[in-house]
Write a structure and sequence with these properties.
The complex is a heterodimer of chains A (466) and B (275).
Chain A (H helix, E strand, L loop, with lengths): L4 E3 L11 H20 L3 H4 L2 H11 L15 H4 L3 E3 L10 H5 L9 E6 L2 E3 L14 E4 H7 L1 H5 L12 H9 L4 E5 L9 E7 L5 E11 L4 E10 L5 E11 L4 E9 L4 E11 L4 E10 L2 E10 L5 E10 L4 E10 L5 E10 L4 E10 L7 E10 L5 E10 L5 E9 L3 H8 L5 H12 L1 H5 L4 H15 L14
Parallel strand pairs in A: 3-7, 6-8, 7-9, 8-10, 9-11, 10-12, 11-13, 12-14, 13-15, 14-16, 15-17, 16-18, 17-19, 18-20, 19-21
Antiparallel strand pairs in A: 1-2, 3-4, 5-6
Helix pairs in contact in A: 3-8, 9-10
Chain B lengths: L7 H4 L11 E12 L2 E12 L3 E5 L6 H9 L4 E10 L2 E2 L5 H7 L1 E4 L6 E5 H15 L7 H14 L4 H4 L2 E2 L5 H15 L3 E5 L7 H14 L5 E5 L13 E6 L2 E6 L1 H10 L2 H10 L1
Parallel strand pairs in B: 3-10, 3-11, 6-9, 9-10
Antiparallel strand pairs in B: 1-2, 1-4, 4-5, 7-8, 11-12
The chains are: A alpha/beta (466), B alpha/beta (275).
Amino acid sequence: METIKNVSVPEVSLSGKLEGLEQQYIDLYKQYHEQIKQHSASVMNLSRDVSFGLFEQLGFPTSKLENYKYTDLKEPLSGEYGLNLNRLKIPVNPYEVFKCDVPGIHSYLYFVVNDGFYPVNDTRNETLPEGVIIGSLSQMAEVHPELIENYYGKLSNTKKDGLVAFNGAFAQDGFFMYVPKNVQLDRPVQLINIMRSDVDFMANSHNLIILGEGAKAQLLVCDHTVDDVRFLSNRVTEVFIGENATYEHYKLENTHTKTTNLSTLLIDQQASSNVLGNIITLHNGVTRNTIEIDIDGENCETLLCGMAIADKKQQVDNFTSIIHNQPNSNSRELFKYVLDDMSKGGFTGKLYVARDAQKTSAFQTNRNILLNKSAKMRTKPQLEIYADDVKCSHGATIGQLDETAKFYMQSRGIPEKEARLLLMYAFTGDVIENIRIDALQDRIKLLVEKRLRGELSNYEGCVICQ
Amino acid sequence: MNTTNNNQSQAQTSPLLGRTGEPLLTIKNLHANVNGKEILKGLDLTVRQGEIHAIMGPNGAGKSTLASVLTGNPAFEVTHGSVTFYGKDLLELSPEQRANEGIFLSFQYPVEIPGVSMVNFMRTAINEQRKYRGLDQISATDFLRLMREKKELVEMDNKLANRSVNEGFSGGEKKRNEIFQMAMLDPSLSILDETDSGLDIDALRIVANGVNKLKRPDNASIVITHYQRLLDYIIPDFVHVLYDGKIVKSGTKDLAFELEERGYDWIKQEVEETR
């Protein structure tokens, strides 16, 4: 893959600043921005230079920033990563790699390989309801510019976040889905992000999802890595939910330990819409998920769940933000972590209730189990409430497995190992209950059990599909 | 198989009380600590097949400690003495091995386990027991039949069986659930730790009834209780008084009546005098 450019980045000393890391990418952009634009869509290029300018100003986030205090990106961002700025086709057959038979799930199936939408002729996708558009963001931006212009960057461009700005500068493609007014997808849509490269590699993709009024869709995003090299993905997903629309977003990560997975999910909810997010990290390297949901209409329902199982030196940081701008909406948040070995977890639950957002009800729970003395969890509820007639609560706990429950089970003949497993499994149960696709729920139950038993291999390919 | 099992000639040797059953459990000079404090201070007890032993005593005497030590609770440390169960050294076994050997403890405070359904819990326990004994997993239909049968025995509400283990159960329901589990696992030695505490008279009758129905010539029970009340329903063959970590007095069920009437002070006095 000769035309993939390797960006050489100097190693930083432990006391070093990230500034040394940014310069390489700044130089790269200045040198190659014409090529980047040439291989993307004009809609995406409109704000590209502005995003770059913002990145120049902000740089990569450091753990000194309040919103990034639980993730140190110094090590993940150092070293050399290749970028595919010339949009070369990556030699991979996703079906061969993943053998996606999707037993029981029957999804509409799409792939993003590294940071490009990977077109496949899947007969299953031929029965998409009329009017639904799914495909490559950069291609669709040329075909339906009027549709995409109104949405692209509308949520992300206002964010003062170095990673989002970086994505705005470098992302050239991604996944696009449009579900028109009153169209309800009969099957879940599955997006598989595959990281495939012979050299250490960085991917920046931008996804755009638009649900019209009264539309309904379920999206399952699976993150996978194929090769034994270092991967860094920095993905931004913007989701616009029309009035009365229903959207479910499942994100399942099963990547290897050399992966840095940075994702930003930005959701805008209009009146009477219903959103479920369920963010599951089964196996990973360093993961930072930013999830921000803006409730911009009345009578919305929002449920944001997530769980992480981590061991060895894995890190999982979920930064969540739910913003109630309008009255009479309900949001609920539930995140659970099971951490072993030297793993680190981070959770931020930011909740903002604007002055006019009266009659808001918002509840937040984060519960964590540390299986080991060297595992670390840091959690922070962050409530800002400016309305005076609201019901809000938050709770965060960090603890160990319940020894009395374990002994109770052992006294019924259940071996200690099995008792621990049952307890951990039970602990994650209420997150898994919030998967509203039956086949997916069953599959994830099995995967969680396998993961807790230490039997899940992230080289198996697509764990959902096998 | 161990050699003491089914050896009828040996079983005929109970000198004092005309015992006939096989010795199931033999405790000799048992000392045990919790948090470094000695609670059991040389306890002796032999339980034979077909027998029901009641253990009574004042608060803090070590009754619940005995139950915990016998079931292998890791919070308790045995410092001296021996416990044999069917001729095996019980103290060498893990809690789960003891359970699968046939020891069951009905907990004084049954534990709530959110997220683990009763059905899943019981199926796992039954199958672990079968695995331990070299048997195949129980079939779905056999399991459901067994559940139904045993639920009826303790008049347990169907809804409870579908919930998480003990979660949100009332005190009476929890105790009933203990006896239900006991019926499912069919132990050869059941230890009932204050099973009567927190039970109203109807629940007490149901629980006791369950225990009595499970009684067979080849199993045995140790009933730990504060009050004589339970012993109106579960008639003991022997009553022991546990005081300051030792069994200081043994007798028949009449001893329980005497304790109910006179309290424990006279026993304490007797013990102090002999010191």
